[in-house]
Fold each of these.
Amino acid sequence: MTVPMLTPVDSTSVARVGYDPDAEEAYVEFHDSGLYAYRGVSARVYKKLVSADSKGTFVNEMIKPRYPFRKV
């Protein structure tokens, strides 16, 4: 498994994000708990994450409750 390039974001809880379009996986690295991969995230949802005013709120409300994840 190869982790895609992660991009730093302006957030108090999220450090970096990345996306693997072939696997439809969003990668979210949190400042305090490490890197997680969320399976089944569409490119559209990932783009909304990247453009969200609050990355942490978006992850908590739109990604964590809806997509299975694993710690990377």
Amino acid sequence: MTIAAKPNARPNNPNFSSGPCAKRPGWSVSALSDALVGRSHRAKPAKARIQEVSDRSRAILGIPDDYYIGIVPGSDTGAMEMAMWSMLGARGVDMLAWESFGEGWVTDVVKQLKLEDVRSLKADYGSLPDLDQVDFTRDVIFTWNGTTSGVRVPNGEWIPDDRAGLTFCDATSAVFAMDLAWPKLDVVTYSWQKVLGGEAQHGMLVLSPRAVERLESYSPPWPMPKLFRMAKGGKFSADIFSGATINTVSMLCVEDALDALKWVEQEGGQPAIVQRSEANLSALANWVGNSDWAEFLAPDVSTRSCTSICLTIGADWFTALNGEDQSAAAKKIVSLLDAEGAAFDIGAYRDAPPGLRIWGGATVETADIEALCPWLDWAYGQVMREQLG
């Protein structure tokens, strides 16, 4: 085999982590200079900033006017837990899982909430479950994009307009990089730390009128933690979704989210940043197409993620190695690139098949993806030289 030469140029920004993700191009801490630090989050100016995050998000994403948007504790995970604990149990539930986070929601519903009428529709990493098998007379829970598998749903056409149950969509690694079918989604959760490159800990929860109706017509039989309560006395707590957050938010994080949203607007809004993510996927696809060792974990182009881009090692001389050897080799590639300052945090998720995971969200420059590719070849060559002696 030919060992690739060590590249001369490194990516300008080697941060390819899948969360927290790269900050927007040109970001510096000075972007937070106007943050209302030392002020109560209940003060009028602070509440206005909190509400501004929701208002700008609605305008950019095209979220319907009658949907509620709120900031909640615990990042995307907190938002999903809040929704599931508050609304599930009124109907049977169909759970879709094709990677670790979807599996996590199954575990919560079956083992923590202990619902009895649950169907799990699962697929291996790299594939989707059969979407035609989903029963929309029931509640449906799914991830729009599998963050640890690099697989996304192709669109929202598989979701009917006249569904009887609610759709719960974990969209944290999809929103802002993919076009969501908002009228087909009743509960949507995400965080700022993915495509926006924002800071962690706070989650976004978006509710349709149908979701609000569920909150007002159904009370779960289990105790409800304070952080999850969205209704009181059978009445929806709308103030939570108008700047009066359940608990204290970081005004530094709020300011950072506003900075990211303003950057999106300056770039041209939702269409422009979707294109930025798709361009990153295209750059890696061009390289994979000419590679004799790298393959996409997701073989179907129509369901391949443009944010959490997952690769496996598939060269003829490598496929004979067992899973332990493949995992060790992938870790060595990650370690070499980290030591060289060429790429940080690109290892596959711990529960996923051995390989690499490269974030392609909108805050990553395509030029940096292109500069990364020769380094991948170089690192692979170093590992294979060691393997082959």
